[in-house]
Design a protein that fits this description.
By secondary structure, the chain is an alpha/beta fold. The chain has helices at 2-20, 22-37, 51-56, 81-87, 93-100, 119-130, 141-145, 157-160, 189-210, 226-237, and strands at residues 42-46, 67-69, 108-112, 134-139, 163-166, 174-176, 185-187. It has a five-stranded parallel sheet with strand order 2-1-3-4-5, with helices on both faces. A two-stranded antiparallel sheet has the order 6-7. 40% of the residues are buried.
Length: 244
């Protein structure tokens, strides 16, 4: 059954990430913890379908409040899938986004890109570091290493980030072969990256709790008292988080 194959593949990859990326996830969590202690924002960015991951951790019940999802329409599929592919290869656009989302010294920028090869992604990481921000990459090292960079530096995302977490996504993302179908199907990156993101954030929050600090966490607006509970956070962050 294809369902069984897919479940088994996802579970195997999740186990592989857990076994091989533990130290990197803890290191990334420490960066997030330190930023939160200093009242900094955690910025999350991806192009195309990777933008789904920025949405995954933004304004989410049970999620951190100080998450600034960079929901840029130009590099998303919402206003044209083919256009987003072209935007990924533009130079100069990263600086526009970093200015617009106000990424500053000691902020944390999480960049999700499976191939990590396009100019926009690499430029985003390099420029953010120039501004004093810390860059966490979630990418596939084997996938990225199999392809030449499209950035003029010749570098890929995993080669320029401060901390890289390898999501072990197979080249091309699709993971399952189906008899009679020429190309592989069924991507795994969203499941793997979402798990990595929530794990990082959870570890960062636990680190803060161990220091006696309770970070701001959203309560579901669909439970009694949710709106009232969240109101204080909305007031505090509405002028700092772009899409709140």
């Amino acid at each position: 059954m294809i369902m069984d194959l897919y479940f088994e593949k996802v579970i195997d990859l999740l186990k592989l990430v857990k076994e091989t990326q533990r130290e990197n996830i803890f290191a990334a969590a420490k960066l997030i913890k330190d930023a939160l202690k200093d009242d900094k924002l955690i910025h999350v960015y991806g192009t195309g379908h990777s933008q789904v991951l920025a949405v995954e951790v933004f304004y989410r019940a049970g999620g951190l409040v100080p998450v600034n999802a960079m929901l840029d329409l130009g590099s998303s599929i919402y206003t044209g899938a083919l256009k987003s592919t072209g935007v990924e290869r533009l130079y100069g656009y990263a600086k526009v986004l970093l200015d617009y989302y106000d990424i500053n010294k000691d902020d944390v920028l999480i960049i999700i890109s499976n191939s990590g090869r396009n100019p926009l992604i690499v430029e985003m990481a390099l420029e953010a570091k120039n501004r004093g921000a810390k860059v966490i990459a979630i990418t596939s090292i084997s996938y990225s290493s199999s392809l030449p960079s499209r950035h003029e530096s010749g570098k890929r995302l995993f080669e320029v980030a401060d901390i890289t977490i390898d999501n072990h996504v197979p080249t091309g993302d699709a993971a399952i072969e189906i008899e009679g179908i020429k190309t592989k199907m069924l991507p795994v990156s969203t499941i793997l990256c979402a798990t990595i993101l929530h794990s990082m954030i959870g570890e960062a929050v636990k680190m803060l709790a161990d220091e006696g600090i309770e970070p701001p966490i959203w309560l579901s607006a669909n439970v009694p008292g949710g709106d009232e509970y969240n109101k204080r956070y909305v007031e505090k962050f509405k002028n700092r988080i772009k899409h709140l």
